[in-house]
Queue: 3 jobs
Job 1
Amino acid sequence: MATADWNPLGDVYFKKNELYAMGWSDMIDLDKFTVAAAPYGGPIALYRDDSKTARVQVSTKPIITVFTAAGNQISQMRWSSGQVVKMGWSNTEDLLCVQDDGMVLSYDMFLNFKRMFGMGQEAKDVKVLDCEIFNSFQGTGIAVLTSTYRIFIINSVDDPRIRRLAEVPGLQSAPSSWAVLNLDRQSRALVAKGNELFLIDHGGQYQNQTPQTNTEVKEYIKMALSFNNKFLALYTDSGVILICSSDLQKVYCEFNTKTEACPHQLMWCGIGAVVAMWGTLMVVVGPQKDWIRYNFESPAHLVQEMDGTRIISNYQHEFLHKVPEVTEHIFKIGSMEPGAMLYEASREFHKGSQKADEYIRMIKDKLEVAVNQCIKAAGFEIETDKQKALLRAATFGKCFLTDYSPETFVNMCQMLRVINQVRHHKIGIPITYTQLEHLSMAVMIDRLVLRKMFHLAIKLCQYLKIPDQEGASRILAHWACYKVKQKNEDDETIARAVAQKLGDTPGVSYCDIASQALECGRTDLAIRLLDFEPRAAQQVPLLMKMSKDQLALSKAIESGDTDLVYTVLLKLKNDMKDGDFFMAIRNMPIAYSLFIQYCRHQNPQMMEDLYYQEDNFVEEANCKVVKSFDDERLEDRCETLKQAMNCYARAKNEFAVKQTDDQIKLLKYQRRMEEEFNRPYMDLSLHQTIYRLIVENSHKPAEQLRKEFKVPERRYWWLRMHALGEAGEWAELERFSKSKKPPVGLEAFVEVCSKHKNVAEAMKYIARVQQDQKVKCLLKIGQKKSAAEAAFENHSEEELNLVLQKCGAADKQLVENIRAMKQQLGGRR
């Protein structure tokens, strides 16, 4: 009978299902252990301190053992640190051990140490009396009560920021009980001081929150907060259980247990009942003062879940929970709910009975409701036979519906297959449908990965059709990181196994795997794994971290990423002596040229040192020439240029030696002229200097420079012509043109006059130019009519065409004249 194991509690029923026969059966007596079990069907940690139970003084260290929920051992270790006050599990299934000095040590379920942090200096100095590990809005939090009766709290073990809560007024001894409440996204502590309750926060505020009750209370000696933080259970010194709202504004129930003995454990079963445990006796109390009594053969440990309570004993692991309403509708004796009718119809159908048709006819208008009830009830069942029976009933009902969407049914089947798989005793995660919905499938897969059950995790991803990037690829990466930590296999074997398994799997970073190998001290394995990493940007930084700089440089060069090459080069430069560094990059042309380019813009002195190291005298001299421009004093600049001359001389570059020597002379000339004329000349070229001197009417110094530096005559004439034109020295320009036959031709003088728009001066030179150049010169100064006449005098139709090309719309008369001239020339032929 489906309801045989149901126990009534007021208007509802509670049921106790066996999850496992414990694998530890004869080896463990829970009465001798401190027990810490993780929620959501998580692992169980047992702490045994023989020194406390031995009749004679022994020096053995305590042992911590971690089991699955089925009682199969996962790991074990000797505890070699301080006195443990409390053990508990984080929401990521890390074991948290809180010591009396306030230090919190975190381990994974295989008891590999992860991290450690403290609860503050005061907790360390005065010792911790008690501790609470709780779920906060930020993750997993820890609160400690010190021997000075102060409470320190952190809201997240991943980001431990310690806050001291307000002090309870007049508290002279340890509180009789206390708990952490999460209200309005803030963690507060509810502290019992005799018959008063104080709610304290980290802002220094406290409130007296004592509930209104008919019971005479001297002390609150136990308290328990519901999973959803909305309800609170209080146990008084007189044996009364108060069931209240968490803000203590409402008292729903006052239940007298008729015993003053304090229960070993007090906690909630979902949100519908409170469970109290005294040794082998367990009492379940409802909000209407109804109660259920359970007796056990041996002491048991309770674990609070969001939808029930797990009961761990020496031989069994059970789950106590409220019978869901939908299950009650289907299986309750005499139920006429659609789901109950459909379930009976399915049973009769499989017996071959005609009653199936009668049941279906009774609910034909409510068939969809019936199907949904059966599907939903299947999710709450722990026994697979009942799951199958309910799903068969749902399938049977669907046959009579034409437009029913199969999505709900398919999703439930998928969820139940996953749940049943992880519930298997070899895996030992007795999670419920409600818990899995809250936890999410992604977290469930992560928990399988934490247990090193990579194959099952991948199978689940494939079954649920999770994209490889989020599923199989990610799990394979975790597997590879685990694989490289195996000390019983050599590097070559592991590298080959990882490469064969992963191949080119998208989303897998060989760099991350190599980092794990490096953390384990397996540098050679890390290098081998990096060979499979296609992204140089990932390879190179890790190679540098391993001090494999030459290999990193080679990989960076192969990638063609100049930024990556620069990254390696600069690290090499910082880590090595200059000489060794230059030798290292000499045989790498790309790296060498990139480094030279870097130095040219960022560190010219280093570039000069590099050329010196290589006896590249010409480039070294070039560096010195460039550097000379940074010298402010003339003497320093000349000295630097002399050093450059010496380098050019060693390179047997006579031209460069001469040019550098001339530059030194020019600088000295420029300084003297600056002093003489009080005008700037430094850093001008030779031509610029001569040009400026002529413009400024300093002809004698300009002539001296011409002679000193042997400026070619033709070049000097060009400089002097243009300088005189700019200075407006037209008379001097004319005298200069008549001083001798101009090596640049008179046309150049016309051009200078044209540039400065002096037509009258230009006409003087045009009168002296040869006849065949007159037309071009006249056109340069815009004298198109005179140019046409000159062309006609030259009997040149080609020159007339040239003038014609320069004519515009305003030159209509001139165009007609030119055409007439062309006709005359044509007639003469």
Note: The longest helix spans residues 654-677.
Job 2
Amino acid sequence: MKNTQLMHEQAEVFAQSIVEKQNGFKFESVFQYTDENGDVIYWKLRAKNPDNGQKFIRSFSLKGSDFILKEPDFHEVFPQGNGSKPLYALYRISASKDQPIYVVEGEQKADYLNKLGLYATTTGGCQSVSKTDLSPLFGRSIIVWPDNDEPGLKFLDALNEAVHEKNTLVSVIKLDELNLESKDDVVDWVEKRAAIGQETSIKDVQNLIIVPYNSTGFKQVEKNNEAELHKKSEVLAAPMPHKNGQFEITSDGVHYLRMRDGELECFWLSTPVLILAKTRDQTSNDWGRLLKWVDDANVEHTWALPMETLQTDGADMRKALAHMGVTLSTSRSARELFQTYIANYPVDTFAKCVNKVGWHDHQYILPNNVIGENSSGEFIVYQSTYNVIDKYVQKGTLNDWQNNVAKYSENHDFLVLALSSAFTGQLLEPLGRHGAGIHFKGKSSKGKSTAVFIACSVWGNPESYYHTWRNTSNALEQTAFTHNDGLLVLDEIGEIPNPKDLGNIIYMLINGSGKGRMTKSLTVRETARWRLVFLSSGEKTLSELMNEAGQQAKLGQEIRLINIDIDQSEHGIFDQIDFSENAAQQALLLNSNIKKYYGVAGAAWLQYLTSDKVKVTEIANRLLDEYAQVLIGQHKQGHIIRVANYFALVAVSGEMATIAGITGWKSGTAIRSVQKVFNHWIGNFEQVGDYEDEEILNQVRTFFTLHGSSRFELINTEFSEQTKVFNRMGFVKVEADERQFYVYPEIFKQEICKSLNSKVVAKVLKKYGWIDCDGKLMTKVKRLPESEKVTRLYVFNANVMMNFDIEAKSEIKQSNSSNFSNMFEN
């Protein structure tokens, strides 16, 4: 490329000298025409008479080192054009690759579009089309912006006639959408926008409606009448150029249009799918695209599609879209084009993606909805590589649900507990609390499933919202993750595939952490974490199922899955017969109603919580302190206090849902019912009192019962084959009627305290006199046979241990007597 800048400055001086000789004209611009390499071919000057509007336009060129007011010999200076003139801005549009070329009438308009970042050119007008080399436009997608007048239409026709047989797709800006006056052009449009305070950007131009140009120059073929139908549809988004055609998004679908052998071909790819934004997480990873569409039932959908799903053949993406109501072409080529459209459609809007439902700052995220305002103003969407089904669906009105579900439950404590639990998951994060599970245990005719299904109706259709225990621990991990900050319902605990996993599953669900795993690329995948509450049902308790599997339920498991036995109730899940003939009919009526009215209570609850999360949290904290004091009462045991605190949280949830106008219950209904069920649990829990101590004492004594005679060597006994001890754990010393077991510290930790905290065990043993200690230490110095050194050992008093009445020591049953029951009357 020669020094075009210097040449242009010299050309400008020459042009001004020419204009000065023209009476009344004022110089405006000099336009420089080059070849595809940027070398100057000629110039064109433009001047105007401000008094009468007359234009003065002349071409000039170089002859030797002098400017002459004449066009050059194009055969000589532009041989590739075969005597024709070059397109304006040829150097720029030659570097545009797959971008569309905007063609306008005049260099000033092309310059403006090029400054915006588009690729624009001109032939100068309809009279110059036949004199211009148009080959750089062949096979490209061009968008024509003609002047809004008759010459503009002639320019469009002439240009289309010249390129349509060269596989060039010609589209035109839909001028009647721009409110232009006669003869207005792109510059006039920009000035009108500026007059009302609107700046114009590249996106403003790209988002203008364009349509394939329909003139006698297009030969529509019968086999491709899709093109004719496409022209009659409404444009929904700006087109996207691709190769020698472009994608267009209209009311009848996503199409790909191209010219082939002088004919316009139009390929239908899918029903309309819009790309709204690019998504990414807070670390600028997990990129995706936010899609939007309306299904055949006129239901609007949005989905944040992870970009990684496009790095295969796209089958997973298409299956997910088809599942959510998008109709797609089955043609292989159409599928490939659709994937190209989804992956590459240009958008400048960004959204923050999250892969977990639940609370994110002051917003609550659901798979297809975001509730609440974001203080930062950033758009947040849910995005997951898992095909998550949106179960948060609604049917009926809140009034319907109140009158046909909540009202019938109000006088039944177990049902109030279940419904209040359904509102509890959303309070865990604001209050900084852990969840728990409640297990309704009862025979098949007692209505246990009715209780958990009623809770499901708060959030969606019970038939699709609930899960069963018939899943592996890995599957339940993913299920728990998708119910973060919410309610998980698991029906029929007896169906669990491997009861031996049950104890660990309980810990996993409530502790809120999955297993660490590797990705396919051998990187460490982030461990799934969640907070939730869950309801369970079944004919057996956790303890019964674990015993059948040869295991013993631990206290930590039993207070994480709180067993509520409804078999003792005369009417099962119901306190009384008050809205039908019998318990069975009441259950049938409720199960029928929850299939008609669901999801609306949960939606109202989220609106209430997000309306002022700070204030709502303050109210919840105050109520929680009040209710916890009432339920804890005189109880001192840690496990009872933990359950009492959880029941208090459930009561808070039910009362706040009532305050929010969601349940329709009288004030005090939730706390009164929850307290009654808590007392019911206290009366049925087999290990009320120092249960942790009893668990420890039983385990230790069982160990010595099994191994005391076989794995401890007698002190002061001469060695012989008959007294040899295999796998020795320590020594036993017998003096008169007293026996003491000496245990090595490591053996104590690894075998006697197996699965228990050794420090806690030692403190309990010392508390009940089972071990002798040196002062505050838990061990005692002893000299062992065949050793001159003393050793610290755990010294067990066998007589105390074997004669200790563990059951009598732990029977510290307490009732939660309180005058609270009448606090909320009236």
Note: The chain has a mean pLDDT of 88.
Job 3
Amino acid sequence: MANITNVELSAATPSKKPRTDDPPVKNKALNAALAASTKANPPRPKEIHRLDYAPLRYKVTKVSLDFNLFERRTVVESILTVEKIDTPDSVTTAEDAKEAKNDVEDGLYLDGDEGVVALNELSVDGCDTLVLGVDYILKPGKLIIKAETLRRGACNNPDGNMIVRSSVEIVPEDNTQLSGLYKDGSMYCSQCEAEGFRRITYYPDRPDNMATFEKVRIEADADSFPVLLSNGNLNEEGEVKGSEGKRKFAIWHDPFPKPSYLFALVAGDLGSIEGTFTTMSGREVILRFYSEHKNAGKLNYALESLKRAMKWDEETFGLEYDLDLFNVVAVESFNMGAMENKSLNVFNTSCVLTDPVTSTDAEYFRVEGIIGHEYFHNWTGNRVTCRDWFQLTLKEGLTVFRDQQFSGQINNCAAITRIQNVLIVRGSQFQEDDGPMSHPIRPNSYIAMDNFYTSTVYRKGAEVVRMYETILGTEGFRKGMDCYFLRHDGCAVTCDDFLAAMADANGVDLSQFARWYSTSGTPVVTYSSTFNQEKGLYQLTLSQSSRSEEPLLIPVAVGLLDKETGREVTPTRVLQLRESVQTFDFADLKGDVVPSILRNFSAPVKIVHASGLVDESYLAFLATWDTDGFNRWDSAQSLYAAAILKVINHEAHDASLDRVLKTFGQTLKDVGISDDSIRAFTLTLPSESTLSKAVNIIDPPAILKARNYVKQRIARTFKYDLQLAYKRLTAAIDADGVTFKVDGASVGRRRLRNVYLGYLCTICETGEEQKESATLATEHFNAATGMTDKLAAFSILASMSGEGSIAREAAVEKFYKDANSDPLVLNKWFSVQADANLPDVLDRVKKLASSHPDFSLRNPNRCRALITTFAMNAAAFHDEEGRGYEFLGDMLEQIDKINSKVAARTTASCLIGWKKYSETRATLMKKQLQRLKDMPNVSNDLLEIVTKGLE
């Protein structure tokens, strides 16, 4: 053991400046030994339970940090002002409570990853030299300063607080996990949510410790890192006097208390653009977006999106930005899409950079939505944050709902936005509900918190928030939001606090609604109905089933259509299903009606008829007449799916196909549909993934074959009409000129024309048809002036075989050449090839992964583009010999050593659903899960997923 000497850290700048040639500090041996011991004998993963939460006993209230960035050596010095909280039985967690009882009785628990953070110096003001084992304990993941040591420090401080000082070293260049402080190319960047701050320094790294970061000083080489950013406002910057070499410093101050997960630091040689926004109170806010110099021209759309988001939040919720500066930085290597760090948002380049030549329409809307999401977090996440990570949906579900509303309203495309969001809910979230990772939106336990940034927490959480608005109305929801901020601004709170604000502001009892927070799985609502012609009375009976022991409160939006004319006779009415079985009356009707149920997807449930049968005539009626845009689309999707499922199951399907063809033809030619995007979505067949959820045993090649069969039947039946419609849209697009527009009309035309292209190119059974399809797709590809059209054609060409093979290879070569090394375009190039419908796609993917110079497992975006996309290419991945599973296992074994979070997320939906497959496939999938579980030093992130997957 080594003695720890005091270090003097002044309030302005540390008196001691580390140099690149400083001798090794004496405590490095201790840290190295501890890290080596932990690696050789990794501690058994601990399951953390929600009900074990205990409040802090010692809280950090003020923070000063000093970063000195050197090549392969960063020194972090911290000054923590610590206050004792007189809360009975407060420690940190139940596990820490046991440690406190057994080891130290009481103390300050600081989190730290000893494999990354090397402790140099530690001191408490007013105390003599601290002795390891006497004054503090250093153990895996924790540094515990004993209570007696803290009391001695408090006695020597006039206000009774304690001042804890430390100095640590980290090596961001070696941080391939991209959690904490890491180096991405020539840029330093941080990512602290959920538990990354402990990879920077020792600190109570939990969301309920909200502290004021009074000073963050960053020092680095002036030429290499002219831009030095952190949270809050810039107080001072300049040249470091008397330093070796030319060095620069910047000092930042954030006046708003925040948890450690919202801390951010960026240092680099960056280009930028700037704008301003005048708030509703008249303050001018400077908006700056940073990126590599070559990408600065691709930031303008994001900047304008931010202005729209700020204005929308003021107008919709009365929420005003609270600082004078808002910074956004684009980073290529980033685990997530973006991060809402207070006033310094960090974005994955894929979520912030746009350009007409390299970005699709979908990417423009995605950028706008994510910009909105991260900005909206300033209030729903930053000003009011989570007490603990089990409450994650409090900030994420609420903010996803807010960004969905923003996207739908700002672009006047609420129906399209709703369809796109429900596709995600019914896709990844319903699948999660039905698998081994099923959990409520407020989970009860976890091993690795990063595994619970899930579709359930985000997407289903947003649906739960949407149900508040559906039940309370827009005004009632706004009243609840106002109450929430009035009560909890500056606090770390729980989902129960949000529910209480909604209930109290509206004078309603929402105790039954609270069950949504603790119920996993997807509820099922069953319906049946009767009509009494004599009384003009229609009765709709709804029943519910879920994993909840007691009934949920489910808002079911219903409208009624005249059975003869299709005219809407009863506008949308929200029924509150509170009982296991409940009957609702609709009186004074002139004739029989057809119900349109669960309009706008008013609750995240499955809706089925009491008979258990699919009434295709009913679906065809709604697909033709329903006035609810979402339900009209949904009915068409269900009708298409019913026909495809009959083909899969080798059932008689002629009548079903006739209905599909009739409905498709009506939609194709319906002049009453003025929105091309609505028409495009309604004409699109359900995906293979969607269809797989409707079968008992998933057979991916059979699903693909059946879907293609139905698509070809449609294409052949309406070939002439599709060709005319395609040419008509081509003429309209050409007449619009070369100026790129991301407005509803332009996007709709491109979207619909690409749907037509997809159908026409499906006709490719004979050699002549293959040539014809290849020619059409190639012409579309070469004529494309934007990425939307180019990518649509490339995706079709990439799957061509036979007489289309030459066109395929030419497109692959041209797309790569046109990419001109642009990382985001190269991601598309890799992704399209991984998703191709070719018999040798696995061999192609293996070759790209093993030998292509532009592929790297260290880049999360590139991993997702190639590896994850291939794993989602169901027919190829689920090869009956298990070659796809084995390849994924090989990749995950490598990725887990580099970035465990990427490994865990890649595995989740690809292997753990083995119970839905044939015994042959299931056995091979489990084999890879077991292999990953048995890996030496497997990460907790991956271990938790594969362990649950094997259960």
Note: The CA atoms of residues 429 and 454 lie 8 Å apart.
